[in-house]
Amino acid sequence: MIKDSVFAALELAEARRAERxxxxxxxxxxxxxxxxxxxxxxxxxxxxxxxxxSPTPTPTPTPTxxxxxxxxxxxxxxxxxxxEAQFYSFAAFGxxxxxxxxxxxxxxxxxxxxxxxxxxxxxxxxxxxxxxxxDELAHVNALRAVxxxxxxxxxxxxxxxxxDGGASGAFTFAAQKAxxxxxxxxxxxxxxxxxxxxxxxxxxxxxxxxxxxxSPLISSAIYLEAAAGILAAEAYHAGLIRAELYRMGxxxxxxxxxxxxxxxxxxxxxxxxxxxxxxxxNLNELDEGIxxxxxxxxxxxxxxxxxxxxxxxxxxxxxxxxxxxTKAAATSGGFFPKGTNxxxxxxxxSGNFA
Length: 354
Prior knowledge:
Layout: H1 2-27, H2 38-41, H3 69-93, E1 112-113, H4 123-150, E2 161-162, H5 170-178, H6 193-214, H7 221-251, H8 257-271, E3 291-294, E4 297-300, H9 316-324
Parallel strand pairs: 1-2
Antiparallel strand pairs: 3-4
InterPro entries: Ferritin-like_SF, Pigment-catalase-like, TAT_signal, TAT_signal_bac_arc
Protein name: Ferritin-like domain-containing protein
Pfam families: Ferritin_2
């Protein structure tokens, strides 16, 4: 058993090294300047681009030129923060992020499809939504500031984002594939408290595993400290969303399906990760639902982690698969109908992760 664990750990380490080599090939020579990076460490605290969340989009990669691997990682992180921040801003306040926080020099500037304020029935959940929205905007501004401190020419524009709650929205497509609604039904994340939490759950665990997976690829100690700080904030958010869904599913009359739907979303995310290997047959099990079975009883599962209570990691390729809502090695789709604006996308293979 111990021997198998050692081999599994070695295989994971080799996978990380292989991905790092891909980053270095992209990056070329040179090291990012560290001036002004403390800005990121301190972070803790209608547009109408109508799209379809098809899982087989037409590839439209965005050339970005040579950048360091650390900056490429931050660019990917900024794409994810744009997505989360816009969702929470609309849900909590009914408005987009300020334009000054969205523009850059890399990639095509895209708009947001969908989004509106949630009519929360629970003032506590509404308060959580406002706090998380403020955190995510702070993450956006901090990442933009740190990339600017290295090279203003590498700050990415916000890409086109689909957070629509209608029939052609990315949320509906994901909900149908996860089986939490029927094939002809729609999923509106702004309908009520439960749908808002389920939509937030779809994003939050992905952000945590993304930062966790990127950490071994970061060269600069200052970048690493900064990423760890944002990872911690995202983990707080994710734990809160999981806890609220579990509470709702166990205590709120008529909301027991909050648990089953959250668990189905978790299974769907895992289905987009890819398959395992001989030593790691459960490599695609990088996620867990909000409940688990202990001694025959269903109990809360607030922290999705391995047997050592260590949070899971996802590679940049797996993160793109979930964001694009496809198992294929696509360059756009789902929540990013025209793709993400970063240097990492150009590294994606033409194979299939299924």
